[in-house]
From TrEMBL:
Pfam families, sorted: HTH_18
Start and end residues of each HTH araC/xylS-type domain: 59-157
Start and end residues of each stretch annotated as Disordered: 1-27
Cross-referenced InterPro entries: AraC_XylS_family_regulators (IPR050204), Homeodomain-like_sf (IPR009057), HTH_AraC (IPR018060)
Cited Gene3D superfamilies: Homeodomain-like
GO terms, molecular function: DNA-binding transcription factor activity; sequence-specific DNA binding
Feature: compositional bias, Polar residues: 1-25
SUPFAM superfamilies, A to Z: Homeodomain-like
Name of this chain's protein: AraC family transcriptional regulator
KW Transcription (keyword) present: yes
Keywords: DNA-binding, Transcription, Transcription regulation
Organism domain of life: Bacteria
């Protein structure tokens, strides 16, 4: 069984590999595979049965999600491989926020909202792809459900205030 400090050393943001310098281009976006292979070489957490260890693991997963939020490859299966945990444990860790997919989507939506507030002139299409959404329709629907308005309506409101 690993100690908490050993677990923190093996999966802290400082030890995450950096993105490759050159990656193949796909359309207008860059295709990047998450660096989960490097994480597979590190020892897996052996005992996460204690609430403290689960909270620490959840914090590390959330930090990883924030770091790779813009990747379209970021999903529950990537997190399972990266942290070498079961699907059941991953879903249990994020059960209080409606699941891991919902958590990722809401983090992306919050980032989109913040960017639209900061820069109402930005392109919505570029914004949604920059934040890892794969579909304009999915982004529009999710944004409206979360904020009660479309991204365009938010841009127009911000434009009126400027």
């Amino acid at each position: 069984m690993q100690s908490k400090s050993a677990l923190a050393r093996t999966s802290s943001p400082e030890t995450w590999p950096s993105w490759p310098a050159s990656t193949p281009q796909v359309g207008a976006r860059t295709r990047v595979d998450l660096p989960h292979r490097a994480w597979l070489a590190s020892p897996a957490p052996q005992d996460v049965a204690t609430p403290g260890a689960e909270a620490e693991l959840q914090g590390q997963i959330r930090a990883y999600i924030r770091a790779y939020l813009t990747s379209t490859c970021l999903d529950s299966s990537t997190l399972q491989r990266t942290f070498r945990i079961s699907r059941r444990l991953l879903y249990r860790l994020f059960d209080d926020v409606g699941g891991v997919a919902r958590y990722i989507r809401e983090q992306r939506l919050d980032a989109a909202y913040a960017r639209l507030i900061a820069n109402p002139d930005c392109s919505i299409t570029r914004l949604l792809y920059d934040l890892g959404f794969t579909s304009d329709r999915q982004f529009q629907r999710s944004f409206r459900a979360r904020y009660g308005m479309s991204p365009l309506e938010l841009k127009q409101r911000q434009g009126e205030r400027s």
